From TrEMBL:
It comes from Chryseobacterium hagamense. The record marks 249 as: Interaction with DNA substrate. The record marks 219 as: Important for catalytic activity. Its cofactor is Mg(2+); Mn(2+). Keywords: Hydrolase, Magnesium, Manganese, Metal-binding. Probably binds two magnesium or manganese ions per subunit. It comes from the Bacteria. Belongs to the DNA repair enzymes AP/ExoA family. Pfam families: Exo_endo_phos. The record marks 150 as: Transition state stabilizer. This is Exodeoxyribonuclease III. GO terms for biological process: DNA repair. PANTHER family: EXODEOXYRIBONUCLEASE III.
Length: 258
């Protein structure tokens, strides 16, 4: 089974890129972030024509998450918001069951500028997320946490890390939060497969970042202990970043053994 995550940076504006990649990658499950579309504007007809059905939670202009699956898989929505804050109206979390696995699609807050209320929101969101993921570990669920975490886990995951010390993506607080997920049993699948390689999933549109390979790794797939032994392969579809009108993120994927 092939599972992928992709921050599309506008599902309608970059729909041709998404459809091209869906056909090329042939993933079984795809998690999308940053739809930037209200609920009624999600391009379901085009996604269905590409061979997938989907659940999604949109938001006008900002945020938005979706889970796609090939039509031979049933999608059962569990929840479309992260528990713990009834006042949080941002569309950043979607949880479903597919093929007896819990799929958690997330678009974690950016948190910039640091310090400030946006960073405080990010830290509080992480605390709520940790509580939910701890529950999955305690229940020994077959679960995958995937999406744009907006966290650079280690200096290996960023071009010139010294320039990012006061950025909300690389602050010690958020790196510690990511590390705490690993410590409790979640497996960073891409880093497990490629422990020493330079791997990026995002390149800014400015300063010829992609040409210079001045990137960062923000998009992750974390496996619960129940699933980690099924990890077979994975990768980053870096070439997609070079397509016309592509997102500043690229798809990341893994394959699980049956």
């Amino acid at each position: 089974m092939k599972i992928a995550t992709y921050n599309v940076n506008g599902v309608n504006g970059r729909l041709p890129v998404l459809l091209r990649w869906l056909q090329e990658a042939d993933s079984d499950i795809v998690c999308l972030q940053e739809l930037k579309a209200p609920q009624e504007k999600f391009p379901y007809a085009e996604i269905e024509k590409a061979g997938y059905h989907a659940i999604w939670k949109g938001q006008k202009s900002w945020n938005g998450v979706a889970i796609l699956a090939k039509k031979n898989y049933e999608i059962t929505e569990v929840q479309n918001e992260l528990p713990g804050d009834e006042d949080d109206l941002q569309s950043r979390y979607l949880e479903a069951i597919i093929d007896q696995m819990v799929i958690c699609c997330l678009y974690l807050p950016n948190g910039n500028p640091y310090p400030g209320p946006k960073f405080d929101y990010k830290i509080n969101w992480l605390k709520r997320f940790k509580k939910r993921t701890d529950e999955m570990i305690k229940m020994d669920l077959p679960a995958i946490l995937t999406g744009d975490f907006n966290i650079i886990p280690t200096p290996l995951d960023v071009y010139k890390p010294e320039r990012w010390e006061d950025d909300a993506l690389f602050r010690p607080e958020v790196r510690k939060a990511f590390a705490s997920l690993i410590e409790i049993g979640w497996t960073d699948s891409i880093r497990t497969l490629f422990p020493d390689e330079k791997i990026y999933t995002f390149w800014d549109y400015l300063y010829k970042s992609f040409t210079r390979d001045a990137g960062i790794r923000l998009d992750h797939l974390l496996l619960s202990p129940y699933l980690k032994h099924r990890l077979h392969s994975g990768g980053v579809d870096k070439h997609v970043r070079g397509w016309e009108k592509s997102s500043d993120h690229v798809p990341v994927w893994i394959e699980l053994k049956d």
